[in-house]
Design brief:
With about 140 residues, this protein is α/β, with parallel strands linked by helices. Helices cover about 40% and strands about 20% of the residues.
């Protein structure tokens, strides 16, 4: 369990921490990153293979990098919800939002429709408080 008040510091290195599975990582690098980082006024993303410190436990890296990020982008798919770290990242994101007293911390990008019964409790609890974006499968959208 993470220590108390782990998200209170407001010195942000990143504009957004990206939480995704390895399966979605290619989508993040090929589709999302160019639209956010590779533009005139870039959004600085925290992505795991570039920004995590090698050798540090993954859950510690998640907490540290979320702390250093203004927002958290949860890239939601069925694979993410079934992954080892996806539900943990949802819970940590909720704690960051609560501890910072900000409902605008979390942004969910839905890559597919997720039936309510398949959403973890932590995500259902956040559902009406956070921004959700449905990503179109149309590359021009």
């Amino acid at each position: 369990m993470p220590p108390g008040n782990m998200f209170v510091d407001h010195d942000y290195i990143y504009d957004a921490f990206v939480a995704c599975t390895n399966d979605e990582y290619e989508w993040v690098i090929r589709r999302l990153r160019p639209k956010l980082e590779l533009v005139e006024n870039p959004v600085r993303l925290c992505v795991h293979d570039r920004d995590f410190i090698p050798g540090k436990p993954i859950h510690e890296s998640i907490v540290a990098k979320m702390k250093e990020s203004r927002k958290i982008l949860l890239i939601i798919s069925l694979e993410f919800l079934d992954s080892t770290y996806g539900p943990l990242e949802i819970e940590y994101a909720g704690m960051k939002s609560f501890e910072e007293g900000r409902d605008d911390v979390i942004i969910c990008v839905l890559l597919e429709d997720i039936p309510v019964r398949q959403r973890p409790r932590a995500l259902r609890n956040l559902w009406h408080k956070i921004t959700f974006l449905k990503w179109s499968s149309d590359p021009e959208a």
